């Protein structure tokens, strides 16, 4: 049976995203262990798996990167570039190097990738340069997302840190590839893709407004 997506899907998805952000605490602490630093390999791995999911802004960006990869030559280089850069960003944080306005830049990056997703149908041509541009933006964003990830692991032992990095790398790649696969199934549904983009914009906007 063929499922027909109507334009109402766009409105529904956008409203749902707004509502979910309205009832979720903006400081969804991004910690799987209630704010406690992981203390062993298992805790580090679980915390790494959880951070990109309970951090709804990070989750939204990873999903957007996977969806934007659809239909582009070497499109998966976009989320891969992001994930590699998150490792760099975490390292920057652990070296006690301060980045300016990291939370605001993370929120803005979500908004930008959401907007790009709403405009995806206008850039349907398989341009290698467009892929490179998106991957470059993803890498810049990844440094700041990774910097935020680093906060959860400051002071942890090396084995715990390694498990944490493994955890958030694994889950981000899984989310991005999952989004990419779903995107391939719905790539002809322009209104649905725009709706997802608007929802992601709403998530980024909510986090940006909620910053103190």
Automatic annotation (TrEMBL):
InterPro entries: HupE_UreJ
Bilayer-crossing regions: 45-69, 76-94, 100-117, 129-149, 161-180, 192-211
Keywords: Membrane, Signal, Transmembrane, Transmembrane helix
Signal peptide (UniProt feature, chain positions): 1-29
Protein name according to UniProt: HupE/UreJ family protein
Species of the source: Pannus brasiliensis CCIBt3594
